[in-house]
Design brief:
single chain; mainly alpha; elongated
Length: 180
């Protein structure tokens, strides 16, 4: 039985939703920062002055926005999914494929999170800096990648648990067309 839209939500559900929404808001702020870097770069070229590192910081901000938005995008059903096989299945085979897919995705996201966190930690330990003229310590921009992959792994495990408990909402047949 699925809870209705007005059903009370538990503290864990509220915390997870707040985590996903917070990461999305942070991603939006990084997108605004990206816009500012691009505009600064354009203005500096037009007005004949140089601001070092704008291209590098634009890249860091774009990566941060992308990684931090992953979990929110997943939870809103906006990730691209190949539903050809899923739409052909009904009942237990469909549910089994959903569970297998979510378990595999959770494992891969967990590995990605582990190695992203390890990369940021090692960059910090070795004082690894950017080779560009900005000389940014690389662990700083890598933190957003690590955080984004950890939150994505949490979101995928969340989806897997919801599917196992029979509480994961499934899209309608026409829903896939809005992503194409």
């Amino acid at each position: 039985m699925r809870p209705g839209p007005d059903a009370p939500r538990g503290a864990l559900r509220r915390a997870l939703d707040a985590l996903y929404d917070g990461a999305a808001w942070l991603a939006a702020l990084f997108m605004i920062g990206l816009l500012a870097m691009v505009l600064l770069s354009i203005a500096s070229r037009q007005l004949h002055f140089h601001v070092p590192g704008t291209d590098a910081y634009a890249g860091y901000l774009m990566a941060a926005a992308g990684f931090l938005a992953l979990a929110h995008t997943l939870k809103r059903g906006e990730h691209i999914r190949v539903t050809l096989l899923l739409s052909a299945l009904k009942g237990t085979p469909r549910r089994a494929l959903e569970i297998w897919s979510l378990a595999a995705a959770s494992l891969l996201a967990g590995l990605s999170a582990f190695y992203s966190c390890r990369l940021a930690w090692q960059s910090h330990l070795f004082n690894d800096i950017s080779t560009g003229n900005d000389a940014t310590p690389l662990w700083l921009p890598q933190l957003s990648m690590a955080a984004g992959t950890v939150i994505l792994a949490v979101a995928l495990v969340d989806e897997l648990v919801l599917e196992l408990r029979g509480r994961r909402p499934h899209g309608t047949a026409g829903e896939a067309t809005r992503n194409e």
